[in-house]
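For the sake of transparency, this paper describes our internal protein records without simplification. The record that follows is passed on verbatim for readers who wish to inspect the format:
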Amino acid sequence: MGFCFASFVMALGIALVTNSNLGTTPITSLPYALGAIFTLSLGTATFLLNLLFVALQKVLLRKEFSPAHLLQLPAVLLFSVFIDICMWLTRPLVTDVYPLQILLCLTGCGVLGLGISLEIVSNATVQPGEGIVIAIAYRARKIFGNIKVLFDLSLVALAAGLSFAVLHNVVGLREGTVIAAVLTGFCVRFFSRWTRHLTPFFHCRKLIRH
């Protein structure tokens, strides 16, 4: 239940940032571009791309890929459904007034940071977008944080390249993408001061990430 709530909060944060019309989050940039190219909802594109991430984990981890990794599939299915629901719920907030767009983007970053901190506390499973980074870091014997930065940058670059090549326009990447990239991590650390005390409520062991 705690993981479901965390997934909904994360989806709400992504929807708020995306519906600010100032660009989407780095991790959502490629699904957004694919959705624009193939006329898919953001949730559907997110789910399909994350299926690929799970398959890539299988390739990278080989015999070390366990049935527990497959828990990422229902997790991302739920998350993808929540994204589409939240995109619909936040649609009335769409505005052309720039200060309000900035406010919506900043609010989304805060909500996303809260959701991520709750997901860490829930300690149930990880989303495939994080699972693939863990697999790459493990196989390459590199620090997770460094691989995460490179992975997010790669998604943004792919989103820009694909959308420009197919649509002749870069979609989903604006100043809001930069704001989300910079601010979300700070929000996670800020909210983690309090969400870590919810560990007994989530009925799971405490997970500390550095």
Q: What stands out?
A: The first helix runs from residue 2 to 18. The radius of gyration is 17 Å. Residues 204-210 have pLDDT under 50 and may be disordered. The chain has one domain: 2-202.
